[in-house]
Amino acid sequence: MRKYGNLTHTAFSEKEPESIIEIHLKPLDLMRYWRRIGILSDFIGYFYGFSFLPNVPTDSMDMKNSEIVNSISTVFNELLENAAKYSYDKKADIEISLIHRGKSFEMLVRNKTNESNVSAYESSLKEIFSAKDLEKLYFQKIESNDPDSSRSGIGLIMVLKDYPVEMEVTLETEGNFTIITSRIVYFTDVSLQS
């Protein structure tokens, strides 16, 4: 098993979950109707955003403009897009677990892939998690005009630099396939992360 990431705070995982949602999706459905990723991400943002707001808005526009709702949606969207993009068998399940524990929200996404996808993703992970300055790496990627920008890592870089998250990615080989497990912990109280 190979691991990449910056996940250092694990004490939150000892806390009893307040809620757990598990979802199984097919990459083919997500890629055929790419908008579904955004719809599901917005739903998750709204669903869990209520848990972290000090005052629940009565107006739906206030909820839609909430920073916590938008950031949860953005982070989850990036995880789901990567799982769909890097899945080998487009009919194999993407397994998603969403766990709310106090002031943290954990997103786990598992998908199956092949060696060529693993190589591309692993190369990106190594670069991202060894970078001293994610802001600088972000702008280098944007300015590079890479013809294969869909695998540049820009989305993960943005999530790691702009949101109160820690991430761990594990790669486990099972026969001819590799299982990618991406785990992001979103801290609604940044003092938990420090």
Question: What do you see in this structure?
Answer:
The protein has 194 residues and is of the alpha+beta class. Helices cover 43% and strands 26% of the residues. It is built from 7 helices and 6 strands. The chain has a 6-stranded antiparallel β-sheet with strand order 1-5-6-4-3-2. The two termini are 28 Å apart. The mean pLDDT is 83.
Mean pLDDT: 83
Number of helices: 7
Largest sheet: 6 strands, antiparallel
Give the H and E element order. EEHHHHEEHHHEE
The rough form would be described as: globular
Strand order of the largest sheet: 1-5-6-4-3-2
Let me know the number of strands. Answer: 6
First-last Cα distance: 28 Å
Contiguous low-pLDDT stretches (5 residues minimum) are: none
> Portion of residues in helices?
40-55%
